[in-house]
Write a structure and sequence with these properties.
single chain, mainly alpha, 74% helix, 0% strand, elongated
């Protein structure tokens, strides 16, 4: 890349545009689902989120209306609720995603024209990214085994302190 190609990238609006495209919340959620799936050793939650993202991103599903896509998302997460042994807190958190999917499907069906919103946008549609982000964060938060993570951190710190106490040459940073 030459200097002439780099010069327009130094413009503040171009930098802001590049930064806004890199901060996609679904990529962060995918990473969070991946980390939780690795910790709890269940990939069903990662697969459900990945499939629901694919519904809206792939061109294969473009002929379907937006309300149909939300109903498919509802079907995916209802399968997750029914198949896995979830605690009550996790079922409630997944229920929030289910209620949100049904509500968005209803909103898209009744207030959208052929599945596409025209000039009439509801408050729900304008805040769809925030609502979905918070619903998934609540679900991810309910999946994290806090006691197990705390116990592992305590064991790591205890072993580190044991090495520090028993070593004459250990230097504190």
């Amino acid at each position: 890349m030459s200097i002439l190609e780099w010069f327009p990238l130094l413009n503040e609006s171009a930098l802001a545009q590049n930064l806004s495209h890199s901060q996609n919340p679904s990529s962060y959620l995918l990473l969070a689902y991946f980390l939780v799936s690795v910790v709890i050793k269940r990939a069903a939650y990662l697969a459900a989120f990945f499939m629901s993202c694919l519904l809206f991103e792939m061109r294969l599903f473009d002929p379907l209306s937006e309300s149909s896509l939300y109903l498919l998302t509802f079907a995916i997460y209802s399968y997750v609720v029914s198949c896995n042994a979830l605690t009550l807190k996790q079922r409630i958190a997944c229920g929030i995603i289910l209620i949100l999917s049904i509500t968005l499907a209803y909103d898209a069906y009744h207030y959208g024209t052929d599945g596409i919103y025209g000039t009439h946008e509801t408050i729900l549609y304008r805040n769809i990214e925030h609502l979905a982000l918070y619903a998934h964060l609540i679900f991810i938060g309910s999946l994290i085994p806090y006691r197990r993570v705390g116990y592992s951190l305590r064991r790591y710190i205890d072993s580190f302190m044991l090495i520090a106490r028993n070593s004459a040459n250990f230097v504190w940073l």
